[in-house]
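Sanity check record (used in CI):
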Amino acid sequence: MKSLQKLLLLIVLLGVNRPLRAQSYYTPPFDFDRSMDKAYVDSLLRTTRIRLAGLDRMRPTATVDTARMEYLHFMAYVHYSGMSHRDSSLLVANQLIQLAERKKNIKYQIKGLLLTERYYRDFKVNYPQAIKLNYRLLALIETTPTTYAMYFWRIYRNLGHISSAIGEYSDAVTYLQKSISWFNKDKKIDPIHLADLHRFLANAYIGQKQLNEAEAHYLLSWDFVNHLSKVSISNKAYLTNDIGQLYNLQEKFTQAVPFLKQSIAYWGQLNAPFPQADALADLAVSYLGLKQYEAAIASAREALAKNQKVPAPMLTAYSVLISAYEHRQDWKNAFEYQRLFNAKKGEEQQAINQTESLRSKAKFEREQLEIAHRQERLLQNQRYQMLAKQAEIDRLNNTFRTNELQRLAQTRDLKYRLESQQLRTVATQKQAAQQATIKQLKINQLHAGLAAQKQLRNLLLIGIGIISSLGLLLLYYNLRIRQTNLALRAKNREIEMALIKGQTIERKRVATELHDRVSSLLGATKMTFQTMDAEILSPRNKKLYENSLNLLNDAVTQVRQLSHNLIPEQLLQQDLLVSLKTLVKKLNLTEQTVFSLSSEPSGKLPLTQEAKFNLYVICLELCTNVLRHAQASQAHIKLIWHDNWLALQVIDNGVGMKTGRESGMGLDNIRKRAETIGARFRLESDPYDGTKASILLPLSSDKAFN
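Expected output for Histidine kinase/HSP90-like ATPase domain-containing protein:
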């Protein structure tokens, strides 16, 4: 009966331990392309919990402990990579570290600390804590560097990430180059990580403005990816987006477009709208550089539709839309996206100000940890030297005992003991000196920390005092400048009104002189010509007579038009639109070019006398240029009025302008006249499409309001 019970117990024990041996604590590889698939992530976590629960029923052994640590590591990894359980990854990683410390298992301590460091670096953006964990990892690995050297590349990679994030790009390049040189020590690692390291190094070179070096490492990473059989789509998506951004920085827009389109397609497969919006914004930049404005607008709008949270791609999309709409003369949309850009830029600046203190703290923390790490290595070397000397003493002791047993030489025994005693004394003195050195180093470190804190506090107090003083001075001078500006603005208004009044009086005088004197003189000349009997003239003289009479008629008509156009009564008494209608009627009397006028919307424009006068004169000058130079059959004057801006355009279908004519005296006068009322002048000319002249006047300006 007892034999039967023992047999059953043995079968039960074998049955309990069999699953562990069969599965050998195997964990499946995590598919990053399914990281957003909650069902997939939860199934991995559920299966791992079941295996952990099974270990609780087994007899504790070294194999069971290793299996438990491997499952905890896998759970923490899945929690973080699955994106929806990242706080749980920190909890499980801490459990792994505590278990590994109890079992004195350095390998899983390192794995747990790497997961914890990644949590603080990438998710919590707590760079000081991440730096501490990396130096803790370095100290742990250096206890047995020959065994765990394969982990050095990960630590240098992490420090490179942090250096790039805090703007220390030179340090980032150094760390990442070290990481690449250590990479081949880890024989089991996936080669895709080497492609990622070259991509990270390229990003650091971009931070240093070394774009050619960055391009070389991006293309090297792309070559690695294309030669690997199994590469996640997310890796390809990040890399193609980065390469497209680099080509945009180099203004190689044609080369950027195919890479960015690939990135958009990859993110579409992964159903990841935020990174896809980033790639779409970069693609819009490429289209803008290629002057494909419709495609640029479509890509930028699609980027905004997919992302209304992350500021950087939103600012890129807004910038593209502003430039594209300005080239299309769509001022309404250009002004609207400029307003959105300014608002979002302000939000981003606030976020930058909030993180700047964290970056400064991370830099200070890294410097302190580097000093402590160097001191610890020095102390460690001193300990090794002390242990080596102690080993030499022990060797001499063993030699002495052997010689004593073999030779029984009392003289040598006495001499050796004296030498041993001297060596022990010297070793004891050196050990005491080393301990004193260690204490002094610690004291110096504490003094340095206190001095740094005191200096930082004093600098902060001085800075606060200086800033407060400057603030008060700026406030005082701001009030003084504001009062002065108000007085100057009033004086300028008086001068401007006097100038307009003087211009108006002078124009009336010139118009009167033209009408009363020149027009009368031409009329008298015409009447004198008409008294001549043309019938008695020879055919040639008769033809000259008729041509002269026609020229006099044209001169009389043009002088009359010029006298009326110099200062129309409607411009001083009525709206600009009414004056322009009268101008169009007079221009059409020449029967050379057909002028037309439209207004969107119609109604009285909120303009000052100065703005009204200058806009009329500019329009008159532009129409005169059309009659003189354009050889146009049609010309159109267009007024576009929005809530806060007014656009005046003169468009003709003539021969355009020759190269070099854009900076003539007449156009310079128009630009200066536009600037006096706060407006912008833009001229576009094409030999096949004629000429378009545009005046854009913001109505928010003080010069434009009534």
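The two ends are 115 Å apart (CA to CA). If this sentence no longer matches the regenerated tokens, the check is flagged for review.
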